Amino acid sequence: MTIFTELDRKFPWSFLGFLAGVTFGLFGIYTVFFYDKFPVLDIQIANDAPVFSVREQVPDLDILFQGSNIREAHQGLAVVTIKISNQGKAPIRASDFDAKDPLAISLANGKIIKVDMTDSSEDYFKNVFDDFKTTDNTITLPPFIMEQGRFMSIRVLALHEEKSRPQFSVGGKIAGINQLIVKPCQPTESLPVHLSVLRGDIAV
């Protein structure tokens, strides 16, 4: 400490600049050579809405879908939007996917009726969607390229058990990604009146 104090007294600004330069230089070397950059495939339920809702028991009310009375079978229809994005620091490459264990999103408690694409960060993902393979309860995605911050959103029409919401899971193997999960839909918080006034637009 005596040596540093003496140096700082003789060359205060230059010495501080030297220390700052060394610190940022070491941080830069760490970032370039040692800091691991991985992709993060984020799969989020962006929206989950019922197609119909019957809260009262109405006698002789039938709801027919594809020729079946789904109300009598205690089933419901839901439109679920799933957003798939890369929130990591590195791109996902087509070669990162394992052909023997492809990326697949499954519905555990129902049947997938229809799947379509609603939004994407670039037109490339519309071509990727054309190669989706869908069964009664699984959506299998082909290998694709997804740079950092890119996304695609798909909409799923699901026939599910009446007393529970559609439950999705994901499987598959992608190099550099240790865990794949489907994040549930985040409920929108209702703000108190005073916060609504402070955060709202001019109309509020």
Describe the structure.
The chain contains four helices and eleven strands, in the order ααββββββαβββββα. With 204 residues, the chain is of the alpha+beta class. The strands form three sheets. A five-stranded mixed beta sheet has the order 6-9-4-1-11. Strands 7-8-5-10 form a four-stranded antiparallel beta sheet, with no helix packed on it. Strands 2-3 form a two-stranded antiparallel ribbon. The radius of gyration is 26 Å and the shape is elongated. The termini are far apart.
Through-space gap between termini: 60 Å
What fraction of the residues are assigned to beta strands by DSSP?
Answer: 25-35%
- Contiguous low-pLDDT stretches (5 residues minimum) are 30-34, 193-198
Radius of gyration: 26 Å
- Output the structural class: alpha+beta
Helix count, per DSSP?
Answer: 4
Shape: elongated
The residue fraction in helices comes out at 10-25%
What is the arithmetic mean of pLDDT? Answer: 81
The number of distinct β-strands equals 11
Characteristics of this structure?
5-stranded mixed β-sheet; 4-stranded antiparallel β-sheet; 4 helices
Topology of helices and strands:
Elements: H1 2-10, H2 12-34, E1 41-50, E2 64-65, E3 68-69, E4 75-86, E5 104-107, E6 110-120, H3 124-129, E7 133-134, E8 138-140, E9 151-161, E10 168-171, E11 182-183, H4 193-199
Parallel strand pairs: 1-11
Antiparallel strand pairs: 1-4, 2-3, 4-9, 5-8, 5-10, 6-9, 7-8
Summarize this structure briefly.
The chain is an alpha+beta fold and 204 residues long. Helices cover 22% and strands 31% of the residues.
